[in-house]
Amino acid sequence: MSYLKNAWYVAALSSEVNDADLFHRKIFNTSVLIYRKQNGEAVALRDRCPHRFAPLHLGKRDGDEVVCHYHALRFDCSGKCTHNPHGEGNIPKAAQVKSYPLLEKHGFLWIWMGEQAADPGLLPDYSPLDDGPPTGIGYAYMHMNANYQLIIDNVMDLSHIDHVHGEAITTRGQLSPIVPKIQETERSVFARWEWKQTPPILVLSGFLPKPTEEARHFFDVTWMPPANIQLSVGGAQGDTPFEQGVGAYDLHLATPETDGSTHYFFATRRNHLVDDANFNDMKLNAMRDAFVNEDGPILLGVQEEMEDQDFFEMKPVLLSNDIASVKVRRLLQSLIAKENGVLAEKAA
Predict the structure, then answer these.
(1) Three-state secondary-structure class, residue 37
(2) Helix 323-347 vs helix 148-156: angle between axes, to the nearest 10 degrees?
(3) Greatest pairwise CA separation for the chain in angstroms
(4) 171, HSE (Cβ side, Cα atoms, 13 Å)
């Protein structure tokens, strides 16, 4: 499978990489080592010694350097070998570990796996996540044995909510009949749903002035490459504009581990009960459980049926609810083809 490699993917939650340990994760079938230097800055290296291919995360830290556990070659944070304890200590020119650019923003460590120079300008701005107290935001990581595009499909097509999820976020059947409003650019797909329901969505109703009466609701979903989806949900009653209503700002991020497995990262910031840490934990756990226990089994089943077949070559029967997810697939496909074409020209 081809990936859009000259782009920023989430390698880890910031909280997953501490000051002492050697953290490792597989991305695009490639083992990556991540650790923090003594000044706190995170760095990423190929998690494989060039000598006998031992995983470097099995080694140890020596200041800002990493020592391979197998034969004690030492590498600095740029991947250069700085010490060979064998023979006369000569260091072969090929004793170099590939390094990867990292950015730490919005509670995530973002990695650039491509060969082109890393472009910080291609990292979307998700600064609303940074606006508010730590008790008003939650982060989660989930491992899924499914292709990353299936997770993108799932979030871009919210009509599944009434059929897959329980009482907490049901729209009383309002979403499926709606064809979302779509906007496209060269690097994004945006979809919006608006509807009314009585009573309001349960997860928001308790924070509305009249919890049992009709409310107006919306979902805004924006995909940006390679696999970043920002989802906003809100509710309001009477003449109150959505901007002054109750809502949440969520981020869904999918990073391919292999062709059939994905690192799924999630963040959510709300505009209500922002100082309640217990509520924060409860909400995050409920959202994680909903995905793992409700979305998860379906996506795993789809992955088993599709295996490594191409989505469009399988000739899916497409419905009105597929419009946003199909547009994302086609745009991502186009961006990958364009990137591969540029790389082929450079190689020639």
Answers:
(1) coil
(2) 140
(3) 81
(4) 24
pTM value surpassing 0.85: yes
Q: Where do the domains of the chain lie, and which CATH numbers do they carry? A: 8-122 (2.102.10.10), 127-340 (3.90.380.10)
What backbone phi and psi angles, to 5 degrees, belong to 313?
-70, -20
4-22 tens-digit pLDDT: 999 999 999 999 999 999 9
Residue 344 has pLDDT above 80, yes or no: no
Residue type, 243: E
Scan for tokens 């706190």, then name that residue. 40
Determine the Cα–Cα distance for residues 231 and 191; give it in Å rounded to an integer. Answer: 10
CA-based nearest residue to 263, from 150, 153, 146, 143: 143
Element counts in the chain: helices (H) and strands (E):
6, 18
Indicate the SS3 state at residue 181: strand
Q: Helix 296-306 to helix 148-156 angle, to the nearest 10 degrees?
A: 130
* 344 residue type, one letter: A
**Residue 101: cis peptide before it, omega within 30 degrees of 0:** no
pLDDT tens across 72-87, in order?
A: 999 999 999 999 999 9
Instruction: Please check whether residue 6 is in contact with residue 339, taking contact to mean a CB–CB distance below 8 angstroms.
Output: yes
Q: Are 216 and 236 in contact (CB under 8 A)?
A: yes
- What does residue 166 show for φ and ψ, rounded to 5 degrees? -90, -160
Cα atoms in the Cβ-side hemisphere of radius 13 Å centred on 73: 23
Under DSSP, the state recorded for 301 is H
Are the C-beta atoms of residues 196 and 217 closer than 8 Å to each other? yes
Secondary structure percentages of the chain, helix, strand, coil, to 5 = 30, 30, 40
Neighbours of 90 (CB within 10 A): 8
Through-space distance between the first and last CA atoms of the chain, rounded to whole angstroms = 22
Cα 106 from Cα 124, distance rounded (Å): 10
Return d(Cα 18, Cα 12) in angstroms, integer.
Answer: 11
pLDDT at 213 exceeding the cut of 80: yes
CA dist., res. 174 & res. 197, Å (int): 7
User: CA-to-CA distance for 145 and 158, rounded, in angstroms?
Assistant: 21
